[in-house]
Automatic annotation (TrEMBL):
InterPro entries (UniProt xref): FAD-binding_Monooxygenases (IPR050775), FAD/NAD-bd_sf (IPR036188), Flavin_mOase-like (IPR020946)
Species, as recorded: Exophiala sideris
Record's keyword terms, sorted: FAD, Flavoprotein, NADP, Oxidoreductase
Protein's name in the database: Cyclohexanone monooxygenase
Domain of life: Eukaryota
Gene3D superfamilies given in the database record: FAD/NAD(P)-binding domain (3.50.50.60)
Signal peptide: none
Keyword set includes Cytoplasm: no
Length: 548
């Protein structure tokens, strides 16, 4: 058992953890990054499943803070795939010589705030203990895998995988594959492997609205155009709502003629991208039922035109609101025209049990399978926090704190009362936006508040120091006030109240995990408004925090 002291410990070596390390090192702090994985990447380390790609275009699914690297680092297609994202993050770590500050195969098992000494004591899977002044979690929104509770699951004798923890190698040739789940990951993996398997059955609970991604190779001229406009591009992204690199519409759906609506929807369909289809076309699809239905009718028509088998088309056609995370694909609906690809609606014919050789359905049908894939998503946002004992003042855990507040609550998505010097990157009630730009904003705010607290601490050190040069001051305490958490929670609830997202059974509100409370877990005001909220807090002398 060793005990090592640092100014800050960052848990997670993905997009957020890497940038947080970079900024804190620039401030002269001693910093350690730990990660349960064997290398950098975060979500992109684990999500190696076939077809895994970002649904954000390549030119902005990266860091904005190194313009030279933005211009020089190559991307060859409109969307980056998992190996390319992972290679990019590895490149950034090497470029800034950050690996020496990182420790892998090391999982945080618990963290306890020592109030007397104003430090966090973190115990790890390696047996090590770290004592730090600042504990920063960069665990990722989508990293705690969610397995459905299906009877007989341990009995299955074939190959079994979860898309969130994929093996480095697989071979599905001439195998019968069942995929449970058809959200973003399910759509991607179905599209990717349909052509290589003997048989594929999609076990679908809820049909999805998905639009083409518009992926494909980029030309040198396109790349040069992006490079010449990066300042303008990032300015637009930071001052937008969802941060996907397009101008969001200010036109209501029903303010134009039916013919004009059709033209705009068709244009968006041809350009590609789910977020573009929802937010570039019109400004009220996510909040107005009549507007939403117009978008639904267009996508339903496309499904009917694409899928040749009427029964498959019927099962694939959604009738709920178009109000889940907007999806895009590289030919999802087309895969069901293959004779080896079928679909089972679990609402019509539920799974009775998993058997040694496949899946038994409630109507008596048995689906023989060699491979079972769970594309059932994640216990999103707070899942990782609830499985780790993070204890603040008086030994209260985050899980206990959130049980009292009625759900995962924070101030600004980053801070929790009674958990001093604990900071979260994309914690509960962070913006519902493209993640890399949002991560940058939060990481920079955390770095800035630490800088300010350190300056204040040095001033107190000077005032409180005794004749021996020793200090009676235990260091800065950055802690949100309970009323600030309450106000932020209320604001998030108000912003989500008019959203149709709230009216669907979506992971965005925790509905994908049985027994999990349906609650607000995101700030729906957009990144531009979120940045304004942060600036108001800074201008007010860090309102919402105890004096530090």
């Amino acid at each position: 058992m060793t005990q090592v002291d640092f100014d800050a410990l960052i848990v997670g070596a993905g997009f957020g953890g890497i940038y947080q390390l970079h900024l804190l090192l620039k401030q002269g702090l001693s910093v350690k990054v730990i990660d349960a994985a064997s290398d950098v990447g975060g979500t992109w380390y684990w999500n190696r499943y076939p077809g895994a790609m970002s649904d954000t275009e390549s030119y902005i699914y990266r860091y904005s803070w190194d313009k030279e690297d933005l211009i020089q680092y190559h991307w060859k297609e409109h969307y980056v795939k998992q190996p390319e994202v992972l290679a990019y993050l590895e490149h950034v770590v090497e470029r800034y010589d950050m690996r020496k500050h990182m420790q892998f195969n090391t999982e945080m098992e618990n963290a306890q705030y020592d109030e007397a000494n104003n430090v966090w004591v973190i115990s790890c899977s390696t047996g090590e203990k770290f004592t730090v002044r600042y504990l920063i979690t960069a665990l990722g929104l989508l990293s705690k895998t969610n397995y459905p509770n299906i009877p007989g699951l341990p009995r299955f004798q074939g190959e079994m995988y979860h898309t969130g923890k994929w093996p480095r190698q697989h071979d599905f040739k001439n195998k019968r594959v069942g995929i449970i789940g058809n959200g973003s990951t399910g759509v991607q993996i179905i599209t990717a492997i349909s052509k290589e398997v003997k048989q594929l059955i999609s076990f679908q609970r809820t049909p999805q609205y998905s639009v083409p991604s518009g992926d494909g190779p980029v030309s040198k001229e396109y790349r040069d155009s992006i490079n010449s406009r990066y300042d303008q591009i990032w300015k637009q992204v930071r001052n937008s709502k969802v941060c996907f690199g397009f101008e969001e519409s200010d036109v209501p759906t029903m303010s134009v003629s039916a013919e004009e609506r059709e033209r705009i929807f068709e244009d968006a369909w041809q350009r590609g991208n789910g977020f573009r289809f929802m937010f570039w076309t019109f400004n009220d699809i996510s909040i107005n039922e009549e507007a939403n239905e117009e978008a639904c009718k267009f996508i339903r028509k496309k499904i009917a035109q694409t899928v040749k088998d009427p029964e498959k088309a019927r099962k694939l056609t959604p009738h709920e609101y178009y109000a889940r995370r907007p999806l895009c694909d590289a030919g999802y609906y087309e895969q069901f025209n293959r004779p080896n690809v079928d679909i089972i609606s679990l609402k019509e014919n539920p799974i009775e049990s998993i058997t040694e050789n496949g899946i038994q359905l409630s109507d008596g049908t048995h689906c023989d399978l060699d491979v079972l894939i769970f594309a059932t998503g994640f216990d999103a946002v707070d899942g990782n926090f609830n499985r780790i004992a993070i204890k603040g003042r008086k030994g209260e855990s985050l899980k206990e704190h959130w049980a009292k507040t009625g759900g995962p609550t924070t101030y600004l998505g980053c801070f929790v009362p009674d958990f001093p010097n604990l900071m979260m990157v994309t914690g509960p009630n962070s913006p519902f936006t493209n993640l890399p730009p949002t991560l940058e904003v939060q990481v920079e705010f955390i770095a800035d508040i630490i800088t300010q607290a350190e300056k204040n601490s040095q001033s107190k050190l000077h005032v409180n120091g005794n004749s021996n040069g020793e200090s009676k001051h235990a260091g800065p305490v950055i802690e949100a006030l309970p009323e600030a958490e309450d106000n932020w929670t209320r604001l998030c609830e108000e912003l989500s109240a008019s959203s149709l997202f709230k009216k669907t059974d979506s992971w965005i509100f925790g509905a994908n995990v049985p027994g999990k409370k349906h609650t607000v877990m995101f700030y729906f005001g957009g990144l531009a408004e979120y940045r304004k909220e942060l600036q108001k807090i800074v201008d007010g002398g860090y309102t919402g925090f105890k004096p530090f």
